[in-house]
Amino acid sequence: MMVLTKCMEIFIHLCILLNYAQEINNITIESQLPKCLPPPFSVLIKFVHNHISIDEIRQEVKGKYFSQYSCNELIGTKTHRTRHVRIDFTERNDYNTILNNGQISFCSQLYTVSEFLEAPKLLVCSKCNSPGHMKKQCRSKYDRCRRCGGHRIIGDHVECSIKCHHCSGEHLSTGYKCPILADYRFQLVKELKRHPKRLPEDVQLFIPAQCRDRNGRPHVITNYQKNEQKSRATYNSTFNMNTHS
């Protein structure tokens, strides 16, 4: 059984094993939980030394914040000295506390804590593996394998040869190693930087390094216009309350 919800609080509730029955009508329930939680419940710790194991980090965080859901290294951030670590929490209080503290210590070393901002995700068709549309709008005559590009129903596509059908490169057709997808994401980020008002309220997106300006700034896209309107409305409301008090 698969459960879908648009409510983030319900999603977090369903990610906690204690909220599941172990057995229903003599049927054992085995839940398959997501590896990580939505970004609004995630923090990022940068440049953690490699000599501190991920298990040590998990133990340190768990001792201070009981609602730790997951703690994992970010793929692609590891160097010969450091790497970045993402930590998810099921309780909003723990998330807010660690962010407000701004720091956390591992093995007598102090590290800065910042909010985790997700990079823009691409809408990729599950039928043809091309960006920019969904399966309902796809004009492809058959479902294409993302590994070899062949007909997904015909032949073996578990161990088929990997060859991108977009650029003929040796990678999956849905991966960012493909120059077609990389360019599409670059154009998408460029458009969002030009028109940040198209972002929903209270949403921030992380700009990948390859999509930033030469000076590396800014590294975040946010809807400043809506945030300013919200701040102005809050100020006016406070002013009116003080005026009539």
TrEMBL record:
Residues 1-23 form the signal peptide. One of its GO terms (molecular function) is nucleic acid binding. Keywords: Metal-binding, Signal, Zinc, Zinc-finger. PROSITE patterns: ZF_CCHC. InterPro entries: Znf_CCHC. Pfam families: zf-CCHC (PF00098). Residues 125-140 form the CCHC-type domain. This is CCHC-type domain-containing protein. It comes from Rotaria socialis. The lineage of its organism: Eukaryota, Metazoa, Spiralia, Gnathifera, Rotifera.
